[in-house]
Amino acid sequence: MTPFFLARGSVLLAGALAASLLATQLPARADDAKRVDPGVITVSAEGVAAVAPDMAVISLTVLREAETARAALDANNAAMTQVLEAMKAEGIAERDLQTGTFSVQPRWIYPDNKDGRNDPPEIVGYTVNNTLTVRVRDLDRLGAILDSSVSLGVNQGGDVVFTNDDQDSARDTARKDAIAKARAKAMDMTEALGVGLGRITQISENSYSAPPMPMMRAEMAMAAKADSSVPVAAGENEYRVNVSVTWEIDQ
């Protein structure tokens, strides 16, 4: 009979231990069920930094036409060589001169094809385009550079984009402005609600730049006068940063 009582005692002991463990775990599960995640508040704001441009990017295109592709190319090469030499004479560094596009295209004439005729189109000449992108870091020389380029044979382009060599500093200023605005807005909202700001749980940003106003865009054949530089207006560049910040609400 002894083995029976030992087994029965073991079963009773195991049951008591299980009940004890269950009793210690139940309060923890009850506490977890009562826990509530803190509320959050998300605020968006935009920061702006306006700075005067210190550099201009211009495109200068030489277009030449001739009866043969060779003749059109030779004429274009001669004109563009003069333009490049003039840019260097104006103090433009090699790193600020870059060929943008180059193309040789046939010029077609399409017959009327009346009375049932089906004459094919014919090539009557060739057009060669060569575009040079120039970074002008001395804006005081911009008008004179545009003027001299026309005198040397540039007859298309003239788009001017004013920009800044160091854009990161302007964006940093705009970012700090945006974050300060977002925090001030969040504090106003929580103060009105009678709560506080907790820790930051998420932050994101989106940045972009706006072109200066006014912005010059001119057809080179009409932009310059023989005895004066092209008038230009640089305006200001605006750099904008949008931030979105999420805080926990401290209640």
Q: Your description of this structure?
A:
With 251 residues, the chain is of the alpha+beta class. It is built from five helices and seven strands; from the N terminus they run H-E-E-H-E-E-H-E-H-E-H-E. The protein has helices at residues 2-34, 69-89, 142-151, 167-193, 220-223; strands at 40-51, 55-66, 97-109, 122-136, 156-163, 196-210, 237-250.
Give the arrangement of secondary structure elements.
Blueprint: H1 2-34, E1 40-51, E2 55-66, H2 69-89, E3 97-109, E4 122-136, H3 142-151, E5 156-163, H4 167-193, E6 196-210, H5 220-223, E7 237-250
Antiparallel strand pairs: 1-7, 2-4, 2-5, 3-4, 6-7
SSE order, one letter for each helix or strand = HEEHEEHEHEHE
- As a whole number of angstroms, the C-alpha radius of gyration is 37 Å
Query: What is the terminal-to-terminal distance?
Result: 66 Å
Strand content: 35-45%
Mean pLDDT across every amino acid position = 82
Give the oligomeric state.
single chain
Widest beta sheet: strand line-up: 3-4-2-5
Largest sheet: 4 strands, antiparallel
The rough form would be described as: elongated
Q: How many β-strands, per DSSP?
A: 7
Helix content: 25-40%
Class from helix and strand fractions: alpha+beta
Enumerate the spans where pLDDT stays under 50 for 5 or more consecutive residues: 4-26, 213-227
Helix run count: 5
